[in-house]
Amino acid sequence: MVSETWIQIIGLAAGVCTAVSLLPQLIKIIREKRAEQLSLFYLFTLLLGLGLWTAYGVLRSDLPIILTNIASAALNISVIILSVKYRKPQS
Amino acid sequence: MVSETWIQIIGLAAGVCTAVSLLPQLIKIIREKRAEQLSLFYLFTLLLGLGLWTAYGVLRSDLPIILTNIASAALNISVIILSVKYRKPQS
């Protein structure tokens, strides 16, 4: 039997990984100033999903889900903004 | 008060969105045969996160979390394999 504390820690670790995961992608876009290989359809579907996960977390009163999905969404929006900014036709 | 059924539906919708979101990215990579703008560090951190979310779902006996994170991980692994395959130095 895994204690509630451990479940919370695993949930937070999971959320931190998925939330922070977009950070290297964001840094890569800022450095290379290219992003046309990223699918905007992917990024917007992900954003919708992250919003729904946040709602799910609120309804379940599940703090790891709420906090990490809000962080993910913030990074996702940053990636979307830069992807649109640096979108150029493939030369 | 939102009923348990609705919470499950919102959770499933959230999971379907985040799981399916990688599909257009996968299709884009297959079509364009280019993926060097995708950060592998991003994809591997995401994979670790998805694995931890699956463990969290199992510990919480939360079916939407389990199923959708397994589906996400399968798509993520496909994107990683193709990203490595189609990784070429920027010309």
From TrEMBL, chains A, B:
Which SMART domains does the UniProt entry name for this protein? CTNS
Q: Which Gene3D superfamilies match?
A: 1.20.1280.290
The answer to whether UniProt assigns keyword Transmembrane helix to this entry is: yes
Q: Where are the transmembrane segments?
A: 6-27, 39-59, 65-84
InterPro entries recorded for this chain? PQ-loop_rpt, SemiSWEET
Output the Gene Ontology cellular-component terms: membrane
Instruction: Output the Gene Ontology terms for molecular function.
Output: sugar transmembrane transporter activity
Q: Which membrane topology describes this protein?
A: Multi-pass membrane protein
Q: What is its main location?
A: membrane
List where in the cell it is found. Membrane
Which UniProt keywords are given for this protein, alphabetically ordered? Membrane, Transmembrane, Transmembrane helix
By its UniProt entry, which NCBIfam families does this protein fall under? Answer: SemiSWEET_2 (NF037968)
- Name by which UniProt lists this protein: SemiSWEET transporter
